[in-house]
């Protein structure tokens, strides 16, 4: 199995830009939005050890793409930035600029099959839509494929965790273990695998030196953050030499994967009165029963109900019909508006009668 190990700088501060809480929140939203808006390319759910043929095709297709685009709306910004001042165009520009200056490098393969190191920012560039204020964000495709490959999903503190670890070997070791910790608690590597994945080279050639200066220091640094608890469970010898190491890993950082294959609710909607659309036949029958004492064929009644329907959808734009789902309903609102419209019509008719007399 081949591994691509993340090699990050010890600090991502670039001039006056630095990564803080706002940048991390935006990065979290980016991880989510990239998956949501590019589901034809991205395996967003927790991946098993063996990919299906469909997943493999997705992965191959994604390797051919240079960039991915996702959209972040004004409602998204209100969700992640509670303070109005953090949502101004100038403030958002600074947050995006900070992510644009956040550089991650990793080993990969070019489209002509050449081994290479890719150096990429978290955000390539972005557009601000003048009419809506929404942002279209362009990101490097291979970088986000790489982050999803590592099993980071869109974990709550992915960016802060990567950069919280100061030692380069601690950073690499954390991500190696993170890519396996979702599927197993005890993780075994050969010493040579660890040396290759951590990119030790010719340093610390003896096992004692490797264990003391690289492994234990990295384990202590990762454990000190509280994001993961690592222990060396067993050292397996081959002759007199330690050949393999089994680590016990408790990953305290939750994995939150976007579910793309959830069962869709079957559309049972029907038309009730001309263009008035309701959730299902049962709700249509309830409306017919509720308004059984008025003449639904009357043009005046139809006009009142149509007007009430239009007002309901304008006031509650979560729906495009009359719905009565448990916990989410505009059914009562529709009936309330109908009552008001009927009362208004009765008062108008009464006034006309008085004027005529």
Give your account of this protein's structure.
Residues 10-177 form the Initiator Rep protein WH1 domain. It holds the Pfam family Rep3_N. This is Replication initiation protein. Belongs to the initiator RepB protein family. By secondary structure, the protein is α+β, with helices and mostly antiparallel strands. The protein folds into three domains: 1-164, no CATH class; 166-262, Winged helix-like DNA-binding domain superfamily/Winged helix DNA-binding domain (Arc Repressor Mutant, subunit A, Orthogonal Bundle); 270-356, no CATH class. It has twelve helices and twelve strands. The strands form five sheets. Strands 1-5-4 form a three-stranded antiparallel β-sheet. Strand 2 (103-109) and strand 3 form a beta hairpin. The N and C termini lie far apart (94 Å). The model is unreliable at 1-17, 152-157 and 256-263 (pLDDT under 50).
Key terms:
3-stranded antiparallel β-sheet, 3 domains, Arc Repressor Mutant, subunit A, elongated, WH-like_DNA-bd_sf, WH_DNA-bd_sf, disordered N terminus, 357 residues, Initiator_Rep_WH1, single chain, Replication initiation protein
What's the total count of β strands?
A: 12
- C-alpha Rg, in Å? 29 Å
Average pLDDT, all residues: 77
The largest beta-sheet arranges its strands as: 1-5-4
Based on helices, strands and strand pairing, what is the structural class?
A: alpha+beta
Terminal-residue CA separation: 94 Å
The low-confidence runs, each spanning 5 or more residues with pLDDT under 50, are 1-17, 152-157, 256-263
Number of domains: 3
Concise summary:
By secondary structure, this protein is α+β, with helices and mostly antiparallel strands. It has helices spanning 21-37, 53-63, 74-80, 89-100, 141-149, 158-164, 168-181, 191-198, 207-225, 281-290, 299-315, 331-356, and strands at 67-72, 103-109, 115-121, 125-128, 135-140, 186-190, 228-238, 241-251, 270-271, 277-278, 324-325, 328-329. The strands form 5 sheets. The chain has a 3-stranded antiparallel β-sheet. A 3-stranded antiparallel β-sheet has the order 6-8-7. A two-stranded antiparallel sheet has the order 2-3.
